Amino acid sequence: MRLLAIPPRLGGWVAVSLLIFPWVALQTFWASQSPWWRVPWATIAWVTAGAAVVFIPVLWGLLRLKR
């Protein structure tokens, strides 16, 4: 049995959970203690990609829940 429609609250929480990626980028910038004019873009990209590898399957699984 498959879920016919995603409940609005679940879809909303998944959408809000996508805000984790900008938050990870900001946390990486703060942790690097770099000045704002010398942003470590490569480090931010790698850490955010790592977070995406972990969280996107989790969020995808939430959207594909079975009753």
Task: Characterise the protein shown here.
The longest helix has 23 residues. Helix content is 69%, strand content 0%. The model has no long low-confidence stretch (mean pLDDT 86). With 67 residues, it is mostly helical.
Share of β-strand residues? under 5%
How far is the first residue's CA from the last residue's CA?
7 Å
Shape: elongated
Number of strands: 0
Average residue-wise pLDDT: 86
The residue fraction in helices comes out at: 55-70%
Count, helices: 3
What string gives the helices and strands in order?
HHH
Which structural class best describes the helix and strand composition?
A: mainly alpha
Largest sheet: none
Rg on CA atoms, Å: 16 Å
| Poorly predicted segments | none
List the topology elements.
Blueprint: H1 8-17, H2 20-32, H3 41-63
Helix pairs in contact: 2-3
Describe the structure using short key phrases:
69% helix, 67 residues, elongated
In short:
Helix content is about 70%, strand content about 0%. With about 70 residues, the chain is mainly alpha-helical. It is elongated.
